[in-house]
Amino acid sequence: MKAKSLFIPVFIAIAASLVQAAPASIEDSIASHASKDGIDLSVIDSAPTILAAIADTYRDKGVEYTQENRRRSAKPIVRRGVGNIFDVHAHAMPDWYRAITPFTGGNVAVGSGGGFPTPQWNVSAHMAFMDTIGISHSVLGFTGPSANAYLGDKARTIALARLINEQLAAFARTYPDTFSFFASIPLPYVEESITELKYAVNELGAVGIALMSNHEGLYLGYDLFTPFWEALDGLGGRQIVYVHPTTPYLKVNNQWIPANPYFEMDQSRMEFYMETARTFMDLTVKQTIHNFTNTHFVLPHVGGAFPVMIDRVLKTVHTDLYEASLEIYRTRFWWDSASPTYFHQIGGLLAYDIPKGNLLYGTDFPFINAAVTAADFDSIMAYPGLTDEEKEDLLSRNYQQLFGDKLYFS
């Protein structure tokens, strides 16, 4: 009798502690996971609004919030005679993010650093756009500045990366046939970036990560980032890094100054192409791409200004890297078509004997409207340097070679 009387209060105490520990809501669960990783979401003033938006993404579709790493499946869809189109370059821009960074590539501290107003976006509009082209599946990522909206503010950068990734995971989980995602990473904070990398890939189900061309003015081959590349490569299997250009910065008197010498030109039209060249040349000459062989890279806009820099740099001051680098560009580099790249630009890339099996389709939605996207699509279909079969591969099959078992191909 005495043993039984002792058991009852102990049981009640354990049960009470479990009830108390259980998250009361999706918002609490997300905050709890963040807290376990040392992330304080409350450092962002709008965190309650953001958490509510993420939770509503699940609730609106009646989907349970879990940390299960689910496979994605792309529904086959036939449009314009080319089949199941896969968009590897598309952006999610929920209202809460547009409120934080109203200018593309910009940041809170310097205002309109990118100079291009962030467009409105929602899931319904994105799906309607996909239907106009015949796209069945899009890989979503945030454009610049991504998690680097608060330059120099470590706590808020780390918190914003987590909120971005929870939101992207919510889109992918509630629309698994339509969306998957590239995770945001809070570089230049390396230790915290490794934590976010593992959480996004292993828990949230990211199919890859999205890095900016620079993080607080540091390009991707910077020595400080080596432990991050080691951690990424050490995950095993094929790791996919999508790199998006962002605003270049110079740090002067402890302040970041947008390094745009030609403010009359929208930065995303000119400097973004230069940014892609800068960071991939940095990754090359620092031999990051040579040293971490599990990692594959997706280059936007068929490489921007990077292809025209290859011979100029590697045939002059880094001749010892030339052949090895070209081999990597032909095997572990993948080149998306976003923007008007197939009128003439693609010819310069293919002159390096880049395999056509490494060409991917991307739209840059919502930054490129439907009319321009249709014109860009037609330029691919009219491009004389690809056979009809190669064009269909670019649109509908090459991505399978890149993603492999990270996606389920129905």
Automatic annotation (TrEMBL):
Signal peptide limits: 1-21
Entry keywords, A to Z: Decarboxylase, Lyase, Signal
Domain of life: Eukaryota
InterPro entries: ACMSD, Amidohydro-rel, Metal_Hydrolase
Molecular function GO terms recorded: carboxy-lyase activity; hydrolase activity
Annotated ranges, domain Amidohydrolase-related: 87-403
A GO cellular-component term linked to this record: cytosol
GO BP field: secondary metabolic process
UniProt record similarity statement: Belongs to the metallo-dependent hydrolases superfamily.
Name of the featured protein: Amidohydrolase-related domain-containing protein
Upper lineage: Eukaryota, Fungi, Dikarya, Basidiomycota, Agaricomycotina
